[in-house]
Write a structure and sequence with these properties.
Radius of gyration: 19 Å
Structural class: mainly alpha
Number of helices: 7
Strand order of the largest sheet: 1-2
Number of strands: 2
Order of helices and strands: HHHHEEHHH
């Protein structure tokens, strides 16, 4: 939106959303063989995303931090099985920063869409009239 008008030709859609991050976190927990009941796995992944996720500036450094001091950076999630009512505990580790990372490196989740979010935003703004670009770069809002 520039000066109150929508520039429809510059609107971009990306096939990544919160649900994608949730599915990716669910997949990561399965690969690490965390004891999440299958009937609860999607809900647990959603809670992990909402409670523990963050964007990191450097992926390699983040891995090093977790590898050096896992006790400090790994978190514990406690849940109750829906069917039996019994409690269970899982460790939340790399999922904390790898979930949001798919916006910046989407190829780690899927080969169908590989354009990082910052590139999509930049391409969209570059398509706009030159006189409104500076204002758009100063006021980026993502939704969805």
């Amino acid at each position: 939106v520039a000066d109150g008008y929508v520039i429809g030709s510059c609107i971009k859609h990306i096939p990544l959303a919160g649900r994608t991050i949730t599915q990716f976190i669910q997949q990561l927990m399965r690969e690490r063989k965390e004891p999440v009941p299958s009937e609860d796995s999607l809900e647990v992944a959603k809670r992990v995303k909402e409670m523990y996720s963050y964007v990191c500036p450097d992926l390699a450094k983040e891995y090093q931090k977790y590898d050096k001091k896992p006790d400090k950076f790994f978190k514990t999630y406690q849940g109750i099985k829906k069917q039996t009512g019994l409690p269970y505990t899982i460790d939340v580790g790399y999922e904390r920063f790898l979930g949001p990372e798919i916006f910046f490196n989407p190829e780690i989740f899927s080969s169908d869409f590989i354009t990082p979010l910052p590139d999509v935003v930049d391409e969209s703004i570059v398509k706009c009239p030159i006189d409104v670009r500076r204002g758009l770069y100063r006021n980026i809002v993502l939704s969805g």
